[in-house]
Amino acid sequence: MRKLKILLYGEIDLNIMDGSTIWLSSMAHVLNKDENIEVNVLLKARIRNKDFTEELAALSQINIIDPYKATHSQTFQNPYRMNCGEAARVIEELDEEHHYHCIIIRGFDIAEEMAKTVLISKTIPYITNFTHDKGKINENERNKLKEIYNLSSNMFVQTQEMKDLLKSILGVKGDKFAILSPMIPDYEEQPDFRNHHNTLVYTGKFAKDWYTEEILSAFTRLQGKDLAATLNIVGNKFQGALADQKEELADRMRNMVGLEWFGAVSRNESLRIISKSDIGISWRSSRIDHHDSVELSTKLLEYGRQGTPVLLRRTKMHEDLLGQDYPLFVDSEDDVVRKTSDILNNRKLYRKTAKRVYEACRTFTYTAACERLKPLLWQYYGDRIKLLFAGHDFKFIQKGVEYFRNHPNFEVKVDQWTGHNEHDEIASKSCLDWADIIFCEWGLGNAVWYSNHKKPGQKLIVRMHAQERKTVYPKQFTMDHIDKVIAVSPYIFEEFHRVCQVPRDKMVMIYNMVDTEEFDHPKLAEHEIEFNLGICGILPSLKRFDRALNIFEKLWEKEKRYKLFVKSKLPHELDWLMKRDTEKAYYDNLFERIKSAPWRKNVIFDQHGNDVDEWLRKIGYVLSTSDFESFHLAPMEGMASGSTPVVSHWRGAETIYPKEFIFENEDDMVDFISNKSHDNSSIKDYPKQYFDTALVLGKLEKLMTNVL
Hints:
The chain is an alpha/beta fold. Helices cover about 40% and strands about 15% of the residues. It folds into four domains: about 5-180, Glycogen Phosphorylase B (Rossmann fold, 3-Layer(aba) Sandwich); about 200-365, Rossmann fold; about 385-510, Rossmann fold; about 515-690, Rossmann fold (3-Layer(aba) Sandwich), CATH 3.40.50.2000. The protein is built from 29 helices and 24 strands. Helix 16 crosses helix 29. The longest helix is centred in the last third of the chain and has 16 residues, at about 580-595. It is elongated and about 110 Å long. Pfam families: Glyco_transf_4, Glycos_transf_1. Keywords: Transferase. InterPro entries: Glyco_trans_1 (IPR001296), Glyco_trans_4-like_N (IPR028098). This is Glycosyltransferase involved in cell wall biosynthesis.
C-alpha cells in the first residue's frame, strides 16, 4: 500500500506565535487529511513553548523531528536555533535515511540553500519574504528567485496576484507556480451570527504596520461609548520598532481595563478565543494592505470561519472576497470606532455581516486545501498505483482491466472469485495487503468481504449492475468503508439509492462501455440482412426469449424471409438453471414450440463466444425483449455495428436508448421492423458519443485518480 513521504520545514520558530507559525501548523493539518501521506516536521528551534508542537504531535501522520536530537554528524553554531545552511545539511541527512518523495520548505534563505543541493528537484519552496514591488526589487534578489524557480519542479504562491507578480518579476510563463491559499480548520457547528458580549479580538504579531498602538487607542475610545466592550489579544511576537517598546506595551496590555492578553497559545486555543469574541480585527497599514497586495491574511479567514465580522482595510483582494459593499472596511482609527459602535448596536447588520464573512471563507478549509493539493503532491510519488480488480465475472469490465494493465501509472492484479460469495480467502488477503485501490466488479460477496477488511488509506470502489438489488449483499456492506459506488445507468443509480439506501454522495453514474471500433465492420449486403433479427443472450427466463419468438413469428407470417439468429449459451449448459423447475419448464416448452413450428428452420442457434462483432455483420435488427435490464449491451453493440436496436420498454431503457427504438408491446416492435421507415445512416454515432470505450475508460481513470 502506497505512502507519500514528505518533509516539512520552515524558517519558523514555533515558540513564537505569528502568521508563519500558523502556516506551518495549517500545512501539517492539511497533509494529515490524506491517510496515505506521512509527514516529518523538522523544527528550526528547540521547543520552549509546547503549545504548538503538542497540537501537531497529536496528528496521526505527523512526526516531529528535533534536529538537535535526530542528527549525529551535524554541529550547530547556536545551541537553540539552526541557521539555513545547517538546516539544509540536516535535510540532506534526513533524506538519506527516509528517502522523501517531496520536501516542502518556507523561506527565501532556506530555498537559496536548498538550491545548492540535488534535493531541489523534489523540493517545493514557498517564499513570501521577497520584495513585492517590481520596480524596487534589485537584480541580485531577482536572480536568486529565478534560479530557485528554474531548479525546482514547483513553487508555492499564496494567491493568483502573487503568481502574476512573480511571473512579471522573473519573466517566466509561471507553469511551475502552484497556488497554496491560506488554510483554516474545517467548519464545524454553524454559529448563530449574534453579538453576545461586545468583545473584540486580535490575534497575531505586534508591529507598527499591524497597528498595535492604534488598536489599543481605538479600544480605549470605544470604552468611552458606554458599550461595555472588551478586547481579547493573542500573540507574543513584538517586531521591528515595537520590539524596543516590548515591556512598555506588555505592561499597558496587562493593565488595561477590559483587555485580556493571552500571550502565545496553540492554534486550537486561539480559535476558541475567536469563537468567544464578536468582532475580529485585521486592520493593517496601507503599506501592507493596498489594491496591489498579493497576500491574503489567514487571520481574516480564521475570524470568518467563526462567523465573526472583521474590521479590515478596503483593497481589491478584500473586495473580491467580501464584496464592494462590505460594511466593515476601515481606513482610520475613527472608522474603527464608528463602524464598531454601529455594528454592535445593530443586530440586523451584525447578522448580515457575520453570515457574509462565514460563507466567503468556506473554500479555505483544510479539507478543501487537501483536495486541491493532492494531485500536485502525488506527482512526486514515483511508484505506480496498485489497482486490484475483484469479482466473479469481468465480462463487462474486461476492457478496463486490460486498459489499466497497460497503463504506465497503474499496476494491476485480479482476485478471481469462483462465485457470488466463493473465493480463496488467503489469496484475497494477499491481494488486500498489496492494493492501493480495490475495484469490486458487481456488488456481491466480494464487496461485502472487501468493505469489511479494507485497511486505512486504501480506497474501495464498487460497480453495481442490477441483480445486486435482489440479493442480501448490499445490506451487508460496511458502507463507511466504500469510497465510491458506480451505477451503470441513471435508473440504476436511483434504484440503488432507493432500494439499498446507498448514499447519493458516494454514488457516481458511469455507463457500461462499448468498443465502437471493434464492432464497426462492413455489413453483409443489405438484401442479406434486412430480414435478419438477432438476440444475444436468452438465459434466464427474464430475458423473455418467448417474446422474441412471438415477434419473429408475426414477422415471418408477413414475410417468409425473416430469420431469428440466437447467440447464447443454451439452458442445458447451466446446471444451476436446470435445477430450477420453473426455468427448466419454461425452456422445455419454448424448444418444443420451435421444434413443432413451420418456421423452425428460420430460427438459427449460433455458438456462444467472443465473436459477437463478426456475428453482428449479418444482423439487421438486435432485439432486447427482457423484463428488466441494468443496461443491456447487445443492442448498443448492435448500434455500433450499424444494426437497429428494437427494445422492449424495460424500466430505465429510456435513460440509455433513444426513444424511437423503445416500444411498449410486441405489435409495435413488429410494425417498426416491417415498415422499415427508420434512417440508419447515423446510428453508429450514438454509441460513439456516449458509450465509447475511450470515453468511459477516461471517466474511470479520472475516478481512480480522484478517489486517492
